[in-house]
Input
Amino acid sequence: MAYQLYYWNGIQGRGEFVRLALEEAGADYVDVVRHEQPGMGPDAMLEILDHGLNPTTAFAPPFLKDGDVLVSHVANILFYLSPKLGLAPSNEALRYVANGLQLTITDLVCEVHDTHHPISIGLYYEDQKAEAKARSVGFIDERIPKYLGYFERTLHQNPGGSQHIVGSQLSYVDLSLFQVIEGLCYAFPNAMKGYQDRYHALADLHAVVRERPRIAAYLASPRRLAFSEDGIFRHYPELDAGN
Output
């Protein structure tokens, strides 16, 4: 039975972290909201959000349905999926390390979102531009170096080798870091210019993931939606460094 991934249509968003794992594994999955088959489409997602699925429900997408199991939140979904997809460290203790790294990525993604919505998610970006500019300055000057520096150090300190963030084989966290670099380069191209010289291991990891056959095929396919100003990573030139 195919995995069912539920996420908003038309944007990469947080659902993209799950898609990358499913695509790399060659897993059989359905992006439910994008399909117009009976029982699918936006109404199928809203039905679960509104009425739940015994014995649990989800507050917001993304969430994943595997038979009768419903799993919500990106890090939780990936923690559940990764052993099934062959994207988890074989050592059980390292699986918790991987989960901690993924949760740190979750924190980073939240901070990226807050650069363009620093006051309220209920307001348009245009209603909070001055505050967004102030938030972005701090994010670029302080938070990007803090996060990327942490991941760079973790790569170098990995006993399994700096080719991967945890263990000696590709994991879902490597795929998520690829998406983080992709998103930051889209949203803040000036701030990220020359990042390869500052974060060699991260840049190498990004390049290796991009060239993996299934990932390369996915990136070239219509399934990979483009970044846009409706998603998490948004490019507003006035929020980038030097503007």
The CA atoms of residues 64 and 133 lie 35 Å apart. The longest strand covers residues 3-6.
